Structures
1.
Amino acid sequence: MNEIWETNFGNNLYDFNNVFPVKSIQMAYCCFLFSSRKKLTQTNSLHGNIHSFSGKTGKTLFAREIRFFVALSLFFTISVINGFSQKVERVVSLAPSITENIYLLGAQDKLVGCTSYCKRAIADDVTQVGSVININVEKILALQPDVVLAVQLTKAQDIETLKKLGIRVELFSTPKSFDEICGQTREIGVLLGVENIAEQMFEKFNNQVDSLKGVCEDILPGLKMFFQIGADPVFTVLPNTYMNDFILFCGAENIADSMKHGTITRESVLVKNPDIIIVATMGGFGEKEKKIWSSYKGLNAAKNNRIYLVDSETSCSPTPNNFVKALSDIVQFVTTQ
């Protein structure tokens, strides 16, 4: 499954409420304190000698309560620290790109659950727990994961259910640039304890991207590109998305650079008359779309035979290696005369 998400970048690194309910503890202690004072008053009343907390007995009991509260606070502070420092050994991934990142980081031995679209993990007999959108909460619970890595396509009520069951959930969203793709992968690396591997990878991928950018430096400015990622209706790559970096890094202009919504008519594309058209394969729909665009003989891209297909498995799945692979193909298209 290709992932083109419309969400905000990473949040909820740790759900503090999943560690312990702070308010409940505070309320419990207040009840304890009130109860102790009440017992003190009642006990001394029976002996005809009511003492306030300023008396000897009151001071003793109050000191005990303070010690109890300090011990209780220390216990839960240690619990929180342990929760944050807990080593992650069992991971459930709810998105193909997250699964690919886990393999990229060499941490696949920690993967115990995945979606029905995570081909590589399925081939390794990792337990399937549903699709990206619809998950089986019971299956996930049975896997006893240390953390579940999810995207905002997964139903919100299922995410909340997992949290209420005490399962740690890290929610990721669509990165808006190549830098954010790397940032998301780094975040996963930190969670899985392989941040050093992540840092080494980023240096390599950043060097490759810089090298590919350099290849396009001599391209004439003003080259107009249409990048199609959906059919029926026709859907285009928008600004402020990581896929727009494919266009920008080639030194080209996105014909949709003023659009806020991805749906576009064929008539609009013809009016903008792009010099290059790139179509994501989309499981067979790409070939059909290429033929349709090629039939418009007045279109610059059609006249110059500059309509290309790019693999949607790399271009539409946000991981650093996929981005570099797709960019390499697109640079080749752009530099081919």
2.
Amino acid sequence: MGDRPRVFVARRIPDDGLQPVSQACEAEIWPDELPPPRDVLLRSIAGCDGVLTLLTDRVDAEFFDAAGPQLKVVSNYAVGFDNIDIPEATRRKVPVGNTPGVLTDTTADLAFALLMAAGRRVAEGDRYVRQGRWKTWGPMLLLGHDVHGSTLGIVGFGRIGQALARRASGFGMQILYHDVNRLPPEVEEPLSATFVPLDELLARSDFVSLHVNLTPDTEHLMNAERLRQMKPTGVLVNTSRGPVVDHDALFEALRDGVIFAAGLDVTEPEPLPPSHPLLTLDSCLVVPHIASASRATRGKMAEMAAANLLAGVRGERLPTPVNPEVYERG
């Protein structure tokens, strides 16, 4: 046991990744459904060669100090890495891995599911039946908005945004997009996607779906002013990061009929407290950050996270490093 790398796995992940880690390493695996408390996390990583983290685990200078100078790798079980101080990891020459690419289609599936469910009031209809309120067919009952033939505005046209556009094309939707830079024609044309300024996208779209990274520029990107630019029949979908939307402004916009509905996979904070005002609104559909939650995708994520962890503890280059510059320094 002594010559095997010591690793800490901050949550139980699918066996696709857990088994190879357990076989190759002296692995401590946090068994609870909730993440380890901060003090427990810091104690558990002391002396470890590698740590497999989740978005709920803050990886910063305190983390690296607690782990010690022998730490060789942090492998994040996510495509995002908002929880990690990447410059600090790089300064300490610790490679960080993530799980890109594998989430693309599964996340796009969930975004489109939220779009349809919010626009057609699916969750609200389910509650209506379960509450015993369904008495007869009604010509004005739970009227929503058509998805087919409508206009979809995609904010952030990377892998997931483009995958959502492919799904929308099957519904005959007109596709507008906005990104920091316009994409080349070979990307736009197969998707029949039109680049427009953000203000125009918000004004013209029936559905707006957010697929941006969380940066200082995108924090509260959807604030009160931008929500007012949307149609009163508009539906907002967020599967990117919770802080991209100002939740207080969203509550007011939904309550006052500024927009029609919202579908959120991510919130600020996470989890969203049961007492949050958004949860008092039938027009706001919230699910618990499950965009990647298919068995196949979570299994592939586990494989990738394990591959990064094992490569790191062996002193090999990570298959998917976030900070490849660590390999360029002497």
3.
Amino acid sequence: MATAKSQDKYQEFLSGLKTEIQTEQMKFVLSANSQMLRLFWWIGHAILRYRKTEGWGTKIIQRLSVDLKKAFPDFKGNSERNLKYMRAFALAYPVGLDVKSGKISWYHHVTLLDKVKGEKLRRFYMEKVIENGWSRDTLVHQISSDLHLRQGKMQHNFAKTMPAGKSELVEVFFKDPYIFDFFELPQEAIERELEAALVNHIYRFLLEMGDGFAFLGRQVQLEKGGQNYYLDLLFYHTKLHCHVIMELKTGEFKPEYVGKMNFYLSAFDEDYRSVEDGPAIGIILCKSKNKVTAEYALRDVNNPIGIAVYNLTDAMPGNLEIPYITTDAN
């Protein structure tokens, strides 16, 4: 049974929360997201502080939810579940929120709290949300596909074909493997079928390619020595300021693919590279590869080329639209 002192402490705590909520509600109009996050962090921090000093049990959150709903019936976010997220939010940021954490929505923070363990990994995905403007659904997909394990893992020769120090800056824009889980293809599919499927799902394809990729065309023609050659897919990378040529292979990697790509890169740069552009980068995307074979194939090539594999897995949910953001995680 609650003591009079305990009741007084709770009422003091509840009164403080009400005052803070009323104050922050007036500021929401000016800076809705950052103020809301600050308020939610403050509530979570207050719950942690009072639980520690007063020895309150877990039922305090249930009681608090009821009282806050009575006091603020129109204020979203007072559910028991959301208050638990606020507590977890305060635990994840024990010294308060920084500038970057205020740039993503409460829904994104809830997703990170639910699905990502560890401050370093949460920071990685938070920065990706800020850089790329990911919706919550996209964030969930990138986490479930282990982006942090794939980014920067493509096999390449950038260190030998780029100025000193640039290789590390470039490789983070590429992955291995690439995951194409938004369409289905038969096992015996040929390159043109894979190419068509990717272009037909260009939004999700570019989402998987990552930050900076702009699609320019498919089967782009090159003419050299009186013969025509065709690039499977052509991109421009807006962060690297260079073109990216992609060749698709539905089988295992073969060394001769590198020689062909090297020819394409030299011919393309001669005809299309402007003074503002860096050298074009070639990506050979295969169904499988032998890493040792790929390493030897790249060894003496003078153009920047990467070799990666792709995976076709179960299709993603179709609702990759930005969700309507509310303040409640329910």
4.
Amino acid sequence: MASRIRVLAVVGLLLLAGCTGMGGSGDASEAQGGGDGAQMSGGDGSSQPVEADAGASDEAGESIQAGDAAADRAIIRNGRMVIEVENYSTTADAIAARARTTGGYVSDSNRELHRDGNETWYTGYIVVRVPSEEYEPTQSMVSKQGTVRSEETTTNDVTDKLVDLEARLTNLRERRDRLRTFYEQANSTEELLRIEEELSSVQSDIERLEAQKRSLEQRVAYSTLRVEIREPAPEPSAQQVPYHERSLVAAFLSSATDVYVFTRGLLVTAASLAPWLVALAVPVVGGRRLLRNRSLPLLGRRGGSESGTEGGGNGSDDPQRESTAAPDTESPDDQT
């Protein structure tokens, strides 16, 4: 009996010790859990700036990558601007000088003069090609020259086309190298001719694709800007008054102006024709005098011959007249 009591007492002490250990471990775990929670909360509070910095760095990295990707793209840019300025020549010269300063050039230009009565004004355009990095600064410079009426820019991404051309060129060059190797190893004339013909075709394709690639690269490297320049046109004149409603003074002055213009036109015409008339009159007058001098001796000879013939005729007629007159005068004597 006593032994059973001892055994039960030992078991009760063990159970009590076990419960006490479990309670201590639970408190310790709670304390540790609280410490962990505090550590975690503290970690979260301190990690927020870290995560923000990481996000900012990621965004910066993405923007840099996007910028690099955009810089790696082959883009052709063409622009058109319409501006109104006070002086066409000054603006066109300034744009051309800007293009040359930036390493570009003027590819085309045109200017047209308009006239309305006494008013004149110019319109036209100038096309410049500038390096791609100078396209936007050139646009800004042009916009400062006058009033911008319209502005547009078109882009064409030819990156894929350039990549395709480069891949085709690589394949064609490799094929050309193989053909050259086969050409050196050929043993018959027929085989040499066949390889040479194929090699010539491949070389032609390479040159054609290289020309296309150079053209695209040139268009990518230099952007095109067409600037249409317009001077302000004069304001339209007042509506004309019908002719029958015009004042007498205005009609008289208009008529006098027309007479003056007509007279002045005649004088100007006469002045312009005077040298020609003098130049033409000299040979005409000289020719007439020459012909007159040659005809005078002939006229003298003809006059002498005619007078001689007339004198002979008169001498033969006089005796007849005297003979016929004599009987008439003597008839009275005979009668006496």
